[in-house]
Amino acid sequence: MKPTKYGGVFEDSHTLDKIKKEEEETLKPDFWNDKEKAESTFSRLNALKESYYPWKDLISEIDDVSELIEMYSSEEDPDLEAELKAQIDSVIERFKPLKTKALLDGEFDKNNLFLTIHAGAGGTEASDWASMLMRMYLRWCERKGFKTEILELEENEGGIKSVSIKVNGAYAFGYLKGEAGVHRLVRISPFDSQSRRHTSFASVYATSEVDDSIKIDLKPEDYRLDTYRAGGAGGQHVNKTDSAVRITHYETGIVVQCQNERSQLMNKEMAFKMLKSRLYEYYRKKQEEEREKNAIQKKDIAWGSQIRSYIFQPYTLVKDHRTNYSTGNIIAVMDGEIDDFIESYLHWQKEE
């Protein structure tokens, strides 16, 4: 059976022709003369291959299973039936992530991601909650094979006040864009000597890394740039020099920080990338006249604005308030198993 368009992303002849054309470009003698163009070509080529070969292999496997079912449909063999069931289950498991990926068709879905977590109302409880969310996302990234880099980390008693993470990987933004919002925790506090139940909050910002083709006009009078001495990990050099960078954008009030690199110049470059990413998202939402609904940075990190609740007591439940998807396996969720929430959000977004 010849593969045809499937799941909105697979097209046999057209996609294969594009792959061959891009591969021919990479073989030209002067290909690397223009490094930026070469990297763009490889990016397109990898995206095409990712949208072609996994579906091609899956459809081939479906065809094989279909032929076996047709061939042995009249036989009653428990061992054969069990083997076919195992193959069908394998096909379903391979189909699930491809189906989710087919929903990632936004302009910047394929890009890297800047993920920022801020502790909200709840004091020490909220700081601990922010650190729990950080671990959840780092575990998810680890499972997906994405590379993460902590750009800024502000610790305080009980956990963290804020953290900014860069996630590098194909479709990192597309997968995690739906995590932006306020996350609510309900549990018996480990910090309360009377073991009372507490509610705490943390906010998550998810913005796409934007490339140089996206022009964000930044004038010196539009922002304030501060340098300061970084704390925490990084060795003696980091702690003895003003290498950390903080940029405050006056009009929007957006603040970004980077202290991960030893060089102030490198921290400054990364901070401006983060700022451009946040500004692009800010103005995009403003142009769509949905700023009040979607601009999470203007919402209180408190009751009534949460997108998801995580309840440890008196029962266990994680529920997304936009999609109504929920699960009782809160331990697995906190260990990074959030794919079902991601998929349900992407379907909900399509319907909206």
TrEMBL record:
Compartments where found: Cytoplasm
Lineage top rank: taxon: Bacteria
InterPro entries: PCRF, Pep_chain_release_fac_I, Pep_chain_release_fac_I_sf, PrfB
Record-stated family: Belongs to the prokaryotic/mitochondrial release factor family.
Any one GO cellular component localisation term in the record: cytoplasm
PROSITE patterns documented for this protein: RF_PROK_I (PS00745)
Keywords: Cytoplasm, Methylation, Protein biosynthesis
Task of the protein: Peptide chain release factor 2 directs the termination of translation in response to the peptide chain termination codons UGA and UAA.
Recorded name of the encoding gene: prfB
Chief location: cytoplasm
Record-annotated Prokaryotic-type class I peptide chain release factors domain positions: 229-245
UniProt PTM comment: Methylated by PrmC. Methylation increases the termination efficiency of RF2.
UniProt GO MF annotations: translation release factor activity, codon specific
Protein name: Peptide chain release factor 2
Modification N5-methylglutamine, positions: 236
